[in-house]
Amino acid sequence: MSTGGPHGTHAVELGPHRVVKRFRAGDREEGEREWRALRLLAEHAPGLAPAPLAAGLGTEEPAITMSRLPGERLRGRPHDGPALDALAEAVRTLHSALPPAVLADVPPRPGLAHDLRAHLRSWASRVRVPPRGEADAAMDLGLRWLDRSDVESAPDNVPPVFGAGDGNLANYLWDGRRARIVDFEDSGRSDRAFELAEITEHVGSWVDEPLDVRAFLSRFSLTAQESARLRDCRRLLALVWLFLLSFDEERQRPRNPPGTAERQARRLTALLT
């Protein structure tokens, strides 16, 4: 997912001017996606992301060296007007960075709606019937919505964009003036509604300092088709997060505060009703 620290999963070495990100041996594809993204953005949107410095992706421990960006993570801090403006501007710049001919050659990002539907189907056996609690009831409601949804197919009139592939606000760095983006291991071709839903529904957007979703989304001019798709993508990703947070609470050492799954159940229910 993100770039190390309390909200990350990869080994990251921070130097004064550069960062080395190390991937597990089986995660070479993640490194390749990140390296491709950094190179494309350095050409088409310089300054938005770290500059690519070196890549060693054919080794037992794949690694990428990139420049170190200034700023503090937007996750876990209040998001005032200027910070929201900067966040939205960074997202808009990312989505429109690549010329259409270049974007057409970028593979779809992993974890799109059809992938998530498959995961949800494999997880559905864990839902207790009849539901025994708030989370189970919301899962059941969400799965019934999924049965009649066509969320996995973006309409033809929804244009593709370049997507970061991870909505964690820890990946957006704010220096008081501008927001920049890190962590592109799941990047690729996507659509704007799905990528915006990745941000609004990520647990990092509400478990600490909540993102003002209405204010954030108001900074984007969406078509009617994108708005309809955004609603469904938010529902889909909220359902995915409900499962993930429920699984997290079953761990011996959960990563999130107690009751997070129940809070997510209420979020999902509100989106579905």
From TrEMBL:
Domain Aminoglycoside phosphotransferase: 17-214
Keywords (A to Z) from UniProt: Transferase
UniProt xrefs under SUPFAM superfamilies: Protein kinase-like (PK-like)
Record bears the keyword Ion transport: no
Region ranges (Disordered): 251-273
Signal peptide: none
Cited InterPro entries: Aminoglycoside_PTrfase (IPR002575), Kinase-like_dom_sf (IPR011009)
One MF annotation (Gene Ontology) recorded for this entry: transferase activity
Cytoplasm in keyword set: no
Pfam families in the cross-refs: APH (PF01636)
Official protein name in the record: Aminoglycoside phosphotransferase family protein
Species this protein is from: Streptomyces bathyalis
